[in-house]
Design goal:
The chain folds into 2 domains: 158 residues, D-Maltodextrin-Binding Protein, domain 2; 90 residues, Periplasmic binding protein-like II (D-Maltodextrin-Binding Protein, domain 2, 3-Layer(aba) Sandwich). A 5-stranded mixed sheet has the order 4-1-5-12-6, with helices on both faces. The protein has a 5-stranded mixed sheet with strand order 9-8-10-7-11, sandwiched between helices. The longest helix has 21 residues. It has 283 residues and is an alpha/beta fold. Helix content is 34%, strand content 23%. It starts with 12 loop residues before the first helix and ends in a 13-residue tail after the last helix. Helix 1 packs across helix 8 and helix 6 packs parallel to helix 7. The chain is elongated, with a radius of gyration of 21 Å.
């Protein structure tokens, strides 16, 4: 994947040994400390959230699994999303937050995109472990054909997370015909909750948010199976980030993810949350 490169140094013995020791230090330090500090997003259901003093979610379980595979304990550090992924990488991985957040050894749920990764000189983005994409769910019995053209949804209340691709899609496509029908919510999970509670006729969110939100509600809802016309986002891979100087840790995490993917543990982590694991394209 081009993300596990190491410097090859030559010279006198002392000059050769010292850089290799420095390069190995991050993984060695994690093992010496007996702890892997894992940064995960706050309010990112079903991947990570805090409830009753407990950190839950697929990413939380993955962080614990990564630590166990390294033979250390997991220190889960939950943090709020910033204005950009670059802000999150700075605050969670390579520098630490302005409010005293201690930089983590690894951050989960980072977009795994080569073009984006090439712009980040402080971190290495490694180990893609899942794929996300947007979907649509509808309440049945309300005269809304979930497989139909979205423009036909006019007159039905449509729930989305504010300032997201689903928001721009429903507000802007089809000549803006649906703009007055779009109801905005703080996140995709609350948009799906509005659908479940009867406050919306349809909700557009990530497939993971839709599956988690609908897993216990039984009948009365349908998931769109076909693609959404003129949807600009085909989906995206998610991976993890380590400090640029922590490539040895990144290599070890990639090996663990490869093993978990092969033996089915990645898919199994998603099952308790009602989420169907999707393999990353980069994998």
């Amino acid at each position: 994947m081009g993300l596990s490169r190491r410097a090859m140094l030559a010279g006198i013995a002392a000059a050769a040994v010292l850089p290799r020791m420095a390069n190995a230090a991050p993984l060695a330090k994690v093992k010496a400390n007996g702890m892997l500090r894992v940064a995960i997003y706050q309010d990112n259901t079903p991947w990570s959230w805090e409830e009753g003093g407990q950190i839950r979610g697929i990413d939380a379980d993955l962080g614990r699994a990564l630590a166990a595979a390294l033979g250390v304990k997991a220190d889960l550090a939950i943090f709020p999303a910033g204005e950009s992924v670059e802000d999150d990488l700075r605050n969670a991985v390579w520098r630490g937050g302005l409010l005293g957040f201690q930089a983590a050894d690894v951050m989960l749920h980072v977009p795994f995109d080569p073009a984006f990764a090439a712009t980040q000189d402080q971190v290495a983005i490694v180990a893609p472990y899942a794929r996300e994409r947007f979907g649509l769910a509808c309440a049945t019995g309300k005269g809304l054909e979930c497989e139909g053209l979205p423009v036909a949804f006019k007159g039905h209340k449509l729930a989305v997370e504010v300032a997201t691709i689903p928001d721009y899609y429903l507000m802007g496509q089809f000549g803006g015909a649906l703009a007055k029908d779009v109801a905005h919510y703080p996140n995709g999970t609350s948009a799906v909750s509005a659908l479940v509670k009867g406050n919306a006729d349809a909700a557009m969110a990530t497939n993971a948010q839709l599956e988690y939100g609908l897993k216990d509600v039984g009948q009365g809802f349908a998931r769109r199976k076909g693609p959404l016309p003129m949807m600009t986002s085909p989906g995206w891979d998610v991976g993890m980030a380590v400090k640029e100087a922590s490539r040895t840790l990144g290599d070890a995490l990639e090996e663990i993810i490869a093993a978990m993917t092969k033996d089915g543990r990645m898919a199994a982590l998603c099952q308790p949350y009602g989420v169907t694991w999707q393999a990353p394209l980069a994998g």
